[in-house]
Design a protein that fits this description.
- It is built from 14 helices and 17 strands.
- Strand 7, helix 7 and strand 8 form a beta-alpha-beta unit.
- It is globular.
């Protein structure tokens, strides 16, 4: 893996000071947090934004005419504008707030899928998908008679694109693939996938749960039909997600949930629906966390994705080089293009046992199948130990992990 240089302007210690949790200890050791692919830690500006909402303008949104309701509505809608800019959507009406990527994919599956899929139609997903981009399509396929097909993954953890092109046909109605794998770190060639799928007449959903924090996202340039984001992966609060959809598609989709806010008029005989995006935002939303998500977006943009990405690539290079030198350690996922995820197995050691011993040294990693059981089966393993890096991590922390790993391996083997 090539050496990566970090811009001189990037000051990781200054970044770390903005994350209060990084100052704590675990089991008497300084916290080394390498579980960022599961959820990123939150800078103080995000925590402050959450507190400020509850302390100063806590109110329900959109329907109130008093000052607190107007302030809360303005803050909530400001986040929608921030997301629009963050991914370069064509209009703010194309930004739908959900509880997370899982709900965003389910929204498309149940609203677009049930309305458009018929018996014999085909849905293409990849062999490295998270369960949330497998199970909804299985359920909709059962209901509609559509057929689910899978793009295979090679030994490096890259999609076999020749097989993808062979699978595409006039029967393909939807292609739904992850932009960057949460288990392997693989960055998929989504531009090529989208162009080929559109040529075949298919709609494309891109799962951006892992990519949106690391990669520059321009949904208009990608020309994807749907794109999903999870706030808590982007240093924001949990319980907030985004579904971007092309306006024409969203306009033609039936509501996903029924209730308040998503209606225009209701009678016992018939109801009509609100305009976009509110047609898909039934009920009182997660206002406080959505408001605080804007602070996370602003924080990421203030650091600069390209600057942070160079630092994270240097971390991945350092970790990969160290892991490759350890006898009995095998990296799972060696794609040529990756986000900062290093997954590995240790011969003769169960990942869970390894994770417990690393935690005893203050090192937080993720172990198991990472909600990608079919992918683990593809590699013939029950799971991996996954270290995933963020802008606030350091090479020194990686050295701590490697030392803890060597100590654990001596105990377990």
């Amino acid at each position: 893996m090539r050496e990566v240089s970090v811009p001189v302007a990037f000051n990781v210690e200054a970044i770390r000071q903005q994350f209060p949790i990084l100052q704590r200890t675990v089991k008497g050791k300084p916290l080394v947090y390498f579980d960022n692919a599961a959820t990123a830690q939150k800078p103080k500006v995000v925590i402050d934004a959450l507190t400020e909402y509850y302390e100063k303008y806590n109110a329900n949104i959109h329907r109130g005419i008093h000052s607190l309701a107007e302030e809360a509505t303005a803050a909530y809608e400001a986040t929608r504008d921030a997301v629009k800019q963050f991914i370069n959507a064509g209009s703010r009406e194309e930004i739908v707030f959900t509880r997370g990527v899982t709900e965003s994919i389910n929204l498309v599956a149940y609203s677009w899928g049930r309305a458009n899929l018929q018996a014999g139609d085909e849905i293409l997903i990849s062999g490295m998908e998270h369960h949330s981009n497998i199970v909804p399509w299985q359920l909709v396929a059962e209901q509609t008679g559509a057929v689910l097909k899978v793009i295979p993954v090679d030994d490096r953890g890259e999609l076999q694109m020749e097989h993808f092109r062979q699978l595409l046909s006039g029967r393909t109605k939807l292609v739904s693939v992850v932009h960057a794998s949460n288990s392997l770190g693989t960055i998929n060639p989504v531009e090529e996938i989208i162009a080929a799928a559109h040529k075949a007449g298919a709609v494309v959903l891109i799962d951006g749960a892992q990519s949106s924090v690391h990669l520059d996202i321009d949904v208009q340039q990608l020309d994807c039909d749907f794109f999903t984001i999870s706030s808590h992966k982007v240093y924001g609060p949990t319980g907030v997600g985004v579904l971007y959809g092309k306006r024409a598609l969203l306009e033609g989709m039936p509501p996903f949930l029924g209730g308040g806010e998503m209606i225009r008029d209701v009678s016992f005989e018939k109801s009509t629906w609100n305009d976009l995006p509110y047609k898909f935002e039934a009920g009182t939303p997660n206002i406080a966390d959505t408001v605080a998500f804007k602070a996370a977006i602003d924080f990421v943009q203030s650091v600069g994705k390209s600057t942070a990405r160079a630092h994270e690539e240097a971390l991945l290079h350092h970790a990969t080089a160290q892991l490759e030198q350890l006898e009995g350690v095998r990296l799972i996922g060696t794609a040529r293009k990756k986000v900062s995820v290093a997954s590995f197995v240790v011969q003769g050691v169960h990942p869970q046992d390894l994770g417990i011993l690393l935690d005893n040294q203050g090192v937080a990693v993720r172990t198991g199948h990472h909600c990608t059981q079919p992918l683990m089966q593809r590699f013939g393993i029950p799971g991996t130990t996954r270290a995933s890096f963020a802008m606030y991590n350091t090479k020194e922390e990686i050295d701590v992990m490697i030392a803890a790993l060597q100590k654990a391996m001596k105990l377990l083997r």
